[in-house]
Amino acid sequence: MLRFFIEGLGLGLSLGITCAVTCGPVFLPYILRKEQSLKQSFITMGKIFAGRFIANGVFGAIAGYIGGVIPDSIRIPISLGSFVILGGLLIYFGFKGESKPGKCAKGFAKRFLMNPFLIGLITGLQICPPFLLAIAAATSTGGALNGFIMFLGFFFGTSLFLIPIAFFGAISSVKILRKIAAVIAVAIGAWFFIQGINGLIMHFSIGTPAEKADYSIIGVPDAKEVIIVSENSWGDTLKTLLSDHTQAEIIVTNPDSALTLVNNIDTLSMVIWFVESDNYQELTKNIGVIILRNSYNKKSLLQFKEFITNYYFKRKHGKGFAFQWEAQ
Fold this sequence. Notes:
alpha/beta, single chain, 2 domains, 7 strands, Rossmann fold
């Protein structure tokens, strides 16, 4: 379990800046919307983190339990729905300003709609690129608890980049800044709301269910076969590195033999093209092909192993694709 936590923590630390850019513009107007002390600002961020923790943990447990990518039919409506709700709340914050005691309806808004825990929960449901990478990693952990542990590490790793936002609470006493924060909240809220509504309309209205389902998600961990096309011993090295990370049968072959298999390879298999020639085009008619470049050493193969065992690809039925990966 410690391994999964460390892997999640490393992923969170590597993607923390992206998370700060994604969620920072949401949290900052909320922190500045009313005058509060630095201590109160940290308490507010703590409540936001609590909401994110629960949302992240639930998705991590689900991803680990199902052992595969969460279907778009579930993932997309949840993510777009969170955009709509979050956008509506940010617009409400911007026009409402600092909450004050009042009648029953206003009391409800103060206790619930303006609760920082709710903001954290909703932002935790925004399935942004870093979140998708964490889900892909959690699917390979083999169990709900392991997935939860990995997302626990991911949560702590990304949160380190969001903590500095709490310090802005120290300048919340400046009235003009609170007004600017209100304008920012409305602008960002309008963007989230419009994106969410447009996305939901597109998702539910374009194409029949059969048409929308005309694709499959494939990846090395659960492929039918993984065919490594190589002309030297590095292909066998890659096979060894991948053997503990996939349920597929791994076959190492040469380019000429691979091309004779075009019509016999299961379309849910994957080909790793580990040669310098570009004769793989015939395979891409109905097979997913990952082309390696500049990868003839152990370090680059380890980098590739981490990539290919955590990333999945969307493939239209009856169609293949080519994806080129180069060592950094």
